[in-house]
């Protein structure tokens, strides 16, 4: 499974990239707004040091302008993927862009039908939002499992990016359900590699080693 970072924070991305755990990055208008930096500047900076796809989202919602924006964003770097919202105009844009060889990430997927349509339209990636589905009292992981099954049955090539990942269970469930990728906020990574029993184990090894070194003193 690949790990993408769901953030536009360059420091966070560098930290995880240094661990060899960053296979790509996804951004969206909210994440760009959070950084308060110029959109193109921050995306090109990230694209310059991450060896993997970087998703940058269009901010128009009509077909003509989405395609225009996407063509421009795609020129920023070789590893750019353009994020397109899951709407009728979005599907049309995905179809046009995929024929031009521009990689797309169809975002805001909340059902199997939406994912199937985006995949058939030619999306390189489809992004179901696990956490937000759970927020509605439904099962985000089940959607990942069903999407993977449908893609496999029909031999569709889109890759599933499990998005809106907020907990260890979201990540582990998405991995077991067959998501090709999970896009994870920088702040969640720490929770993924930590465990209270690891900390307790280290504390007890340290204590015992000190006792060993002090023997006979
Ligand atoms: O990748 C989508 C993500 O940024 C949304 O996360 O936690 O706002 O639902 P969240």
Automatic annotation (TrEMBL):
It is found in: Cytoplasm. Transaldolase is important for the balance of metabolites in the pentose-phosphate pathway. Its main location: cytoplasm. Keywords: Cytoplasm, Pentose shunt, Schiff base, Transferase. It catalyses: D-sedoheptulose 7-phosphate + D-glyceraldehyde 3-phosphate = D-erythrose 4-phosphate + beta-D-fructose 6-phosphate. HAMAP family: Transaldolase_3b. SUPFAM superfamilies: Aldolase. Pfam families: TAL_FSA. It is an enzyme of class 2 (transferase). CDD domains: Transaldolase_FSA. It comes from the Bacteria. Belongs to the transaldolase family. Type 3B subfamily. Its EC number is 2.2.1.2. This is Probable transaldolase. NCBIfam families: fsa_talC_mipB. InterPro entries: Aldolase_TIM, TAL/FSA, Transaldolase_3B, Transaldolase_3B/F6P_aldolase, Transaldolase_AS, TSA/FSA_arc/bac. Pathway: Carbohydrate degradation; pentose phosphate pathway; D-glyceraldehyde 3-phosphate and beta-D-fructose 6-phosphate from D-ribose 5-phosphate and D-xylulose 5-phosphate (non-oxidative stage): step 2/3. The active site is at residue 83.
